[in-house]
Amino acid sequence: MLAEIRSLNEECGVFGIWGHENASQITYYGLHALQHRGQEGAGLVVTDGEALKALKGEGLVNEVFTTEKLSAMTGNGAIGHVRYATAGGSGIENVQPLLFNSTTGSLAISHNGNLVNATQLKGHLERQGSIFQTTSDTEVLAHLIKRSGYQDFEEKAKNALSLLKGAFACAILTEDAMYVALDPNGLRPLSLGRLGDAWVVASETCAFDIVGAEFVRSVEPGEFLVINKDGMRADRFAYPNERSICTMEYVYFSRPDSDIDGVNVHSARKRIGKQLAKEVNIEADVVTGVPDSSISAAIGYSEQSGIPYELGLIKNRYVGRTFIQPSQDLREQGVKMKLSPVRQVVNGKRVVMVDDSIVRGTTSRYIVTLLKEAGATEVHVVISSPPIKNPCFYGIDTSTSGELIAANHSVEEMREIIGADSLTFLSVEGMVENIGRTDPGSKCGHCLACFTGEYPTDIYPDTVLPHEKETV
């Protein structure tokens, strides 16, 4: 399917609101803004102060939620989730938020990330009698909360969160409160906003813009927010570690109109595109970006190099997410359905093709072929990130080391495989320095594990990769 073609996928997006009479409708629009973070499933849970009600399904946001269904979801607090399902992980049972009912109170959880100690925690809980209904890390957190020895729910939740290792941005909903938490390394993005008297939380600030909310601040690593009828109160479940936001949020995953830690994503991509032009000297006639995430970097490359930018590739936005083809030949046809070269732009031209990453190399090879078939005399591929040589254990589907082309081939070998006339990757230093951060005095502030192999947390021997988790 098209997800296999792109080869790099975010796991999900989280949204929550408290104190708004149209909480479910606001959540719908918030999730719509986060649709790029997951297209396989969507859901929301709403509270009216007495009970939690869930609405979820497989598909896009506007397919799962209808006006009629939303009108029945009344309440002033809600959390929502969009999900990218990995191989074998499709199924309504894994669509979030997950809702858990009990005689001692119900709770719902939306979670973005991946726990590196989920296997150990799950085994421990099962030995205590827990029975798991899904393959999601989210259910582990719910069992930990319910089995905590504390009496107060806040203490139960903080105790459970303190046991988690890895990446997690969570929104937890009960009948009378919403709780928000971010892992001690801050590996995933999470922001806090206001909509009138209501509090809003989202994986990206673009969701605030679409619902008319005002950005307040980023949720801090290790922070635990309590939001209820008394307002918002900030607490902690853990001391923060060095900030290690996923660098690929800036390079690829987040929408260009989002801000992460005070840095606009589009502006960051333009800067790294300019840095690419400084690090390489290519004689060419035209610069084009692979839509959509690479366009900003391509514009930056063009401005710095003086080579004109053109729309050399057009994305077909009407190829459905359910376009599934089982064979390799038909998957290649799927690329042609998704991307089309503009022949009049590239014919007879030396083309600089800017892309954000190379994972398996299949997509790059297809696109280079498309451009050359359209008449490009040369295709020079420049990548606005370093080579991805290591798998991600924190919620990004980057495959195993054996499937990563950069982990098994030199740059020259990769160039030959994709059929490019030249291949250049951005340096790690150039990427970090040009993304720009509001905390320039920090050591780094980024998770660079997929490039450098230096993981900000311990990785356990039986840690399961995100794309493998739902097949075991």
TrEMBL record:
It catalyses: 5-phospho-beta-D-ribosylamine + L-glutamate + diphosphate = 5-phospho-alpha-D-ribose 1-diphosphate + L-glutamine + H2O. Its EC number is 2.4.2.14. Pfam families: GATase_6, Pribosyltran. Residues 12-230 form the Glutamine amidotransferase type-2 domain. Pathway: Purine metabolism; IMP biosynthesis via de novo pathway; N(1)-(5-phospho-D-ribosyl)glycinamide from 5-phospho-alpha-D-ribose 1-diphosphate: step 1/2. The keyword Iron-sulfur applies. PROSITE patterns: GATASE_TYPE_2 (PS51278). The keyword Transferase applies. Coiled coil: none annotated. GO terms for molecular function: 4 iron, 4 sulfur cluster binding; amidophosphoribosyltransferase activity; magnesium ion binding. SUPFAM superfamilies: N-terminal nucleophile aminohydrolases (Ntn hydrolases), PRTase-like. Mg(2+) binds at S293, D355, D356. Binds 1 Mg(2+) ion per subunit. Binds 1 [4Fe-4S] cluster per subunit. Its cofactor is Mg(2+); [4Fe-4S] cluster. Gene3D superfamilies: 3.40.50.2020, Glutamine Phosphoribosylpyrophosphate, subunit 1, domain 1. The active site is at C12 (nucleophile). GO terms for biological process: 'de novo' IMP biosynthetic process; purine nucleobase biosynthetic process. Keywords: 4Fe-4S, Glutamine amidotransferase, Glycosyltransferase, Iron, Iron-sulfur, Magnesium, Metal-binding, Purine biosynthesis, Transferase. Catalyzes the formation of phosphoribosylamine from phosphoribosylpyrophosphate (PRPP) and glutamine. In the C-terminal section; belongs to the purine/pyrimidine phosphoribosyltransferase family. This is Amidophosphoribosyltransferase. It comes from Planococcus salinus. The gene is purF.
